[in-house]
Amino acid sequence: KAGVTQTPRYLIKTRGQQVTLSCSPISGHRSVSWYQQTPGQGLQFLFEYFSETQRNKGNFPGRFSGRQFSNSRSEMNVSTLELGDSALYLCASSLGETGYNSPLHFGNGTRLTVT
Amino acid sequence: QKEVEQDPGPLSVPEGAIVSLNCTYSNSAFQYFMWYRQYSRKGPELLMYTYSSGNKEDGRFTAQVDKSSKYISLFIRDSQPSDSATYLCAMTGMDSSYKLIFGSGTRLLVRP
């Protein structure tokens, strides 16, 4: 069974630009969560989608947004990039909603560098 | 104070040693506990998943939950250099209103 696939693996953008990251969950998984990972802050929750509806949102500014499609694939978008947005962005999928009684399975992430 | 505390390490041990990794937490509502392993340039990989208190064993790995002390542990027996990675604990509550909260991770180095 294929795991969670994230594209692209690496991305370099300039401050002020916007970026879209893509995630394909494990087949049959209906929940997709996004996390930002940095050395200083660790894993921080961005948002979670279940059956195309946003179920939970972390404490990130409105520049960070996401969506989920009917096939459970998900995208996240960051507009007006700032230097501090440089991070590893991880997507995770699960059968049920957010980790409770249905653990998350992560992809290998998209490494975003903002210059 | 963070909801989940985890010593960042690094923890350096010789090959064959028993490793103990720990997390403490403050929210008594947490019921589901997980351990993830993350290799460099990879995403976290689920190692252990437990519900409520008690022990769970899987090969060389044992997860232990002590809800009365709000303390969870991961033991690795006969540690191998391939176990060198960052280990993250994670936990959440009983329903979907809870977010999954991660510890900051402990970096483990197993020396040959």
How many β-strand stretches of chain A? 11
| Low-pLDDT segments of chain A | none
Strand content of chain B: over 45%
User: What's the main sheet of chain A like?
Assistant: 7 strands, mixed
Shape of chain B: globular
Unreliably modeled segments of chain B:
none
Broad structural category of chain B: mainly beta
Radius of gyration from the alpha-carbon trace of chain A, in angstroms: 13 Å
Quickly give the structural class of chain A: mainly beta
Gross morphology of chain A: globular
Using the CA coordinates, give the radius of gyration of chain B: 14 Å
- Biggest beta sheet summary of chain B: 6 strands, mixed
Helix content of chain B: under 10%
Secondary structure layout plus pairing:
The complex is a heterodimer of chains A (115) and B (112).
Chain A: E1 5-7, E2 10-13, E3 19-24, E4 31-38, E5 42-50, E6 53-57, E7 64-68, E8 74-78, E9 87-94, E10 105-106, E11 110-114
Parallel strand pairs in A: 2-11
Antiparallel strand pairs in A: 1-3, 3-8, 4-5, 4-9, 5-6, 7-8, 9-10, 9-11
Chain B: E1 4-6, E2 11-14, E3 19-25, E4 32-38, E5 45-51, E6 54-58, E7 61-66, E8 71-76, E9 85-92, E10 101-102, E11 106-111
Parallel strand pairs in B: 2-11
Antiparallel strand pairs in B: 1-3, 3-8, 4-5, 4-9, 6-7, 7-8, 9-10, 9-11
How would you concisely characterize the structure shown here?
The complex is a heterodimer of chains A (115) and B (112). Chain A is an all-beta fold and 115 residues long.
